[in-house]
Amino acid sequence: MGYGKKNSNPIIVDISEAVSTQLAEKPSKADFLSYQTIPYNPMPPKQGLKTSNPKIVRKTDNNEFVVIQKTNKGYLLYTLNTKNGDTGVTSVGVNWDLIRLKKVEYSSLSYVWWDANPTIGTFASTFSAAGINTSQEQGYFGSALTSGSAISDDGTGNGFSVKTLGASSSVTFTIESSYEALTNILFMGSSGSSNSVDILVNGVVVKNFNPQSYRLPDQGNYAVLNFDLPRANFSTEKNLTVEIRNNDATRVFYFCCFNFNELKNYNGGRVNKFKAFQSGKHFINGAGANDYAIYDSDLGKWVGSFHGGETSEYAKVPWKNLVDGYEETQTLTDVATVPLSSWCVLNEFHLMQKTNLNNKGNMTSVFDFSTDGSMEMKFGLSNCTINTVNFYTALTCTHKDFLHVVFPEIASITTNANNYFRQAMGEITQRNSAELLDLNIRYTTFNRYRGDSRINPYVTQNVDYSKFYYGVVAGDASPINIQSLTFAKGLDFSVRK
């Protein structure tokens, strides 16, 4: 076969010589110290099935948002704001303009609905008033619903109520049409309730039903009945009349609301109310940065995020114009122009920001909530003149009850100590064993040559948190200026029971 024969093909010879030349070249020290050329490992992707269910976003204060997102079991309640930055002498302080992650709480349930006073007619009475954890909510969702606190669109935490429609009576509502035709009615059927109810849309009967047929053998029962509404179009008339007519001459009808759905099942149509139960079980809930921090060696102070010295130059979110229907008019909107206390249901949500770092650089931040059970963060540092010996890029103030790590090792966390994990893969899973909550942290990793032992990922556990630390520079002997850098972090929240 002539294995020892020299190849005479000029193209192959040229390629071979070029490869040999490249292999012979040795990288210089400057190459290794350049954060523009060094190799790094991107943030690992989330493992398993990825889904994206509807999520609720509410602006609860100036520069504050609450995001309600589905996770593997139940929901997550995120709080993001600019509040409670560090004012100590070791931080630059003054300005804390980055809208940053502050809290993540487990929620067993979230739902949406449409409710308003009738435009024609009145209900005879309120059978069961709205509240935090009511008999009607337990009647529909189950008696295991035990939470005593909740958040809602109006700040009360109240859910839906039950109204009594008198015998041979009707009520009419004006509902704005949307791009989703299917809607529903939530009601209670019992042995003493009406046996004939009509639903009329624009004066035409679209559904007749017997509420008694939905009751359980020994008790009343809450049920949902679907019906269609005309879809929105480009005509100027978009208001629909929906009439509920009780045909029974002696018995009442127990009405709750329209377009009632658990959040994960919401598929469009008009809603003007939401609720999410709180549990008091937190993945994150404490002071400190959940993103980055840079130590300015010239000032002897920390800067960025929780440590301040950061002013906003750009902050936008996708926001939905509820006038023209679900998703059709979602636009990128300045945070400052989003009305206070407004909310909407979105298929995807991200917060885009650009900040000035104490006039020594800029940070571009993108927080994305599109994937169920996860928040992903991307950062771009540019034009930076800060000389630093510590630059943390994946800080996470995990709740203090997360006392174990189950990846990359299975280990208990030692209190008031730095627990180091020297594995190179950018992923760690912290666990609250008492509540069976997992927080998986995925992050960009860099070559570990600028720092002391803290250049390795570690967790510090104390009375405030089980905080995760990792950075591109940590405890280095001499300051370094990193002019530009990109890095990312993903947080995956799971309920294991």
In short:
This protein has 497 residues and is mostly beta strands. The chain has three helices and 41 strands.
Structural class: mainly beta
Distance between the termini: 65 Å
Average residue-wise pLDDT: 90
Our count of domains comes out at 2
Indicate the low-confidence ranges by residue numbers: 322-327
Determine the number of helices (DSSP H or I, runs of at least 4 residues). Answer: 3
Shape: elongated
- Estimated share of beta-strand residues: over 45%
Please give the radius of gyration in angstroms: 29 Å
Measured as a percent range, the helix fraction is under 10%
- CATH class of the largest domain, please? Mainly Beta
CATH topology annotation of the largest domain: Beta-galactosidase, Chain A, domain 5
Protein traits:
497 residues, Beta-galactosidase, Chain A, domain 5, 2 domains, eleven-stranded mixed sheet, elongated
Structure report:
This protein is mainly beta. The protein has two domains: 287 residues, Beta-galactosidase, Chain A, domain 5 (Distorted Sandwich), CATH 2.70.98; 139 residues, Jelly Rolls (Sandwich), CATH 2.60.120. The protein is built from three helices and 41 strands. The strands form eight sheets. Strands 5, 22, 23, 25, 26, 27, 31, 32, 34, 35 and 41 form an eleven-stranded mixed β-sheet that branches. Strands 7, 8, 9, 10, 12, 15, 17 and 18 form an eight-stranded antiparallel β-sheet that branches. Strand 13 and strand 14 form a beta hairpin. The longest helix has 15 residues. The radius of gyration is 29 Å and the shape is elongated. About 1% of the residues have low confidence.
